[in-house]
Structures are given as C-alpha cells and as structure tokens.
Amino acid sequence: MDTNGLEIYLQQRNSKNDGERYSAFLEMSAITEEQVDWCWKYIGEFKKKLDDENSYQRSIGTMMLCNLAKNETSRPCVRRCLAFINEAH
Q1: Which of 1, 45, 68, 82 has the fewest CB atoms within 10 Å of its CB?
Q2: Phi first, then psi: what are they for 61, rounded to 5°?
Q3: Domain positions in the chain
Q4: Residue 75 CB partners (closer than 8 Å, separation 6+)
Q5: pLDDT at site 74
Q6: Do the Cβ atoms of 32 and 71 come closer than 8 Å?
Q7: Residue 52, by phi and psi: left (phi above 0), alpha (psi -120 to 50) or beta?
Q8: pLDDT score, position 14
Q9: What is the pLDDT of residue 34?
Q10: Concatenated DSSP letters of the chain
Q11: Residue 58 has what pLDDT?
Q12: The dihedral formed by the CA atoms of 7, 23, 13 and 67, expressed in degrees to the nearest 10
C-alpha cells in the first residue's frame, strides 16, 4: 500500500467529524488485516493512542497494534506491539 494514503487516514482519525474519524478507523482496520511492510514506520502512531484520555482512541490504538502483531512476520515488531499493549493495560 502507498503510505501516503495511510497518512491521510492517520490525520482523519483525529478529525472532529465522527463520520470521517470512523471511516478512517475502518480503512486502517482493513489495511492492517493483511501483512504490511510499514510496521516500524507507524507503530509509534498507534502506541500514542494507548495513552489517550479517550477510551475510544485507546481502543483504536489497541486494535491497530493487535492487527499489526497478528499479521506481521517480523518477530521484533510483534514483540514491540504486544509490549506496548501490555505496558498500557
């Protein structure tokens, strides 16, 4: 996937518009259902969500990290995703 599209979804997930934010979440969920080649580039973006005061945002971060972990073949990336989730909860 072209990561420029992902950049747009990452921006939209912070939108004040609920519909736009939810659409971005659905797109990111679909993208991360498959193995991606950009785990290390964006893992920090999803980790930040784990510390958000809003539980919906924390859930998004958790779901994205779980999707990355289950579909990633790079063991260090999987371990990092799971460590982030473990630290946050």
Answers
A1: 1
A2: -60, -45
A3: 3-88
A4: none
A5: 67
A6: yes
A7: beta
A8: 78
A9: 83
A10: --HHHHHHHHHHTT-S-HHHHHHHHHHHHHHTTS--S-HHHHHHHHHHHTT-SSHHHHHHHHHHHHHHHHH---HHHHHHHHHHHHHH-
A11: 86
A12: -80
For 36, the token pair is: 């991606």
What pLDDT score was predicted for residue 1?
Answer: 53
What does the pLDDT average to over 7-22? 84
How confident is the model over 79-83, as a mean pLDDT? 79
Question: Rounded to the nearest 5 degrees, what angle is found at the Cα of 76, between the Cα atoms of 56 and 82?
Answer: 30
- Which two tokens mark 40? 């290390």
Percent share of the chain, pLDDT over 70: 92
Residue from 7, 83, 72, 78 nearest 37 by CA: 72
